[in-house]
Hints:
Blueprint: H1 2-16, H2 21-39, E1 57-58, E2 61-62, E3 64-66, E4 75-76, E5 83-85, H3 87-90, E6 109-111, E7 114-116, E8 121-123, E9 129-133, E10 139-143, E11 148-153, E12 163-166, E13 168-170, E14 173-175, E15 189-191, E16 208-210, E17 227-228, E18 241-249, E19 252-253, E20 262-270, E21 279-281, H4 289-305, H5 307-315, H6 335-350, H7 405-416, H8 421-439, H9 454-476, H10 502-506, H11 516-520, E22 522-524, H12 534-544
Parallel strand pairs: 21-22
Antiparallel strand pairs: 1-2, 3-5, 4-5, 6-7, 8-9, 9-10, 11-12, 13-14, 15-16, 17-19, 18-20
Helix pairs in contact: 1-2, 5-6, 6-9, 7-8, 8-9, 9-12
Amino acid sequence: SHHYKTNINFLHCCISQERMKEGMLVCAIILAVLETAVACSCNGFVNSKGQGECRTSFRGKKFCYVKPGRCPDEKKASKSDRFWSYEACDRNEDEECYGCYDPNSTIKCTNRGRTYNKGDTFKTGAGCNTCTCLANGHLSCTEKFCPSVSNCTTVGGPDAGSVCIFPFTFDRVTYTECTKHSATDGKAWCSTFTDSKGNHVGMGQGNWGHCPLDGEKGGCDRDQVGEWSLWGSWGTCSSSCGLGSRVRTRSCSQGLCNGSSQESQQCQGTNCDTCRTKRVRRNVNTLSRSERIKLQQALQNAINSGEYEDVANFHGYPPTLCSGTWCCPHGGVNFLPWHRLYMAQMEEVLGEPLPYWDWTEDGRVPNLWESIAAPIKQGNLLNRPTCPRRDLRTVMRSRSININANDLKQRTKEALMANTFEEFSNQISDPHGFLHVSMQCEMSDLRTASYDPIFYLHHAYVDRQFAFWQELQILRGITPEEHPDHRQSLPPFNNQRFNNLQKTLSSNRGTETFDYKDKYCYEYDDLKFDGDTPEEFFLAMTVQTGGCGMV
């Protein structure tokens, strides 16, 4: 805006020397600069919701509607053919009158992002001036009485909480107080937005609100202190499961009340038992032909949609979801809870129960998804272990896998005998890690393991061991212990930007993963280890350890 006024004098000088080449050159430059600046301006349109003309905000910034092709930042409205801009409001925020640069232009004056033609009169906010754009391209500004902003705040209607403007003119009548004229609900109202002449901008555009006094006449007594009613009951939580918000309201009567008529607070939706049916995870070797075909198709669909890579990225490369580090914790107390969440995430993407691979009984790699080429996000950028490889962008399988099932069974048995969570978590990571290393290729690399479909059969079994140990703890009479680290949210499951699955988004802390049946809606066909149920395993350990069932 100051840019406009500073250059007007230059322009007048330039025009007076228009026959001089130098002057014409300077004039052309100044005209070009000013024309660009003035072009980006509001067009005066206000939509049916009262939005536009820099009086409402979108994402924290004032905006207005503009003519297309005028503003560098203009965007097309999603539900109409109109264009809008932030910059048109930003250019003239100091609320002063600005002159026009070309007396022969059809557009003469600009003010607060609006453009005016020759002879138009308009009001400014600073000093309450009326500015008239003259035919010679100059402004005529005179003092005038302006509509004042009152201390009366609306308590209802489309603009509840806004300040009334008095006086305002509606239907050719000027009002200095609230009115019930044309009120379809019979309540007194006032204008919250007027044009430069004090005329109310139409009822259908949302620029009005109910006045606090609603007697026979209706009004807004500035000297009468009103009285708040008691707060109403809290409304329903906005989220049926997980974190949400709820509101309650109160009403003001007999005058003006200080404070707000509404307040909100956070709430926790508890209706999270959405498990009308639970998925049953079964041993991969027991699946029927039709079940195997369904799982193969489910994986291929997840790959085709891109969801498989997105979920695999939770665990592996590239490390972009958790502030440049790996999201998956290893070697700590959140190793098991995090991977339990992770299995639930992939299970939801597949839409089928995840089978498990019991590598303590069968060391052969299950032939379920081996024929499917699983992609690796940005895999061509990684240096990876030597494997038979045709394409760096897909998972490959080693030809020399050797898994010692008996050794893994013994290591698992020792872990199950632990009587504290931290001890069990540390010990079960031992056979888990041996399996990864034995598989070689992508499975042996933290960055790429989760892109190999066998990863999910492997970790579904690790989760089954976790569930088996939980049953042992009940038999031992040990209540689930709460480690301080289990109270933390586990990324990226807690981030709506990456996780749109309500089950894992609302229950993303370690403590919540212990209740896997109700939180994540799955269970196992049976819980056995080396042929024993938890009760049989506990009894055998009790005899072995002299009556305590633990080490």
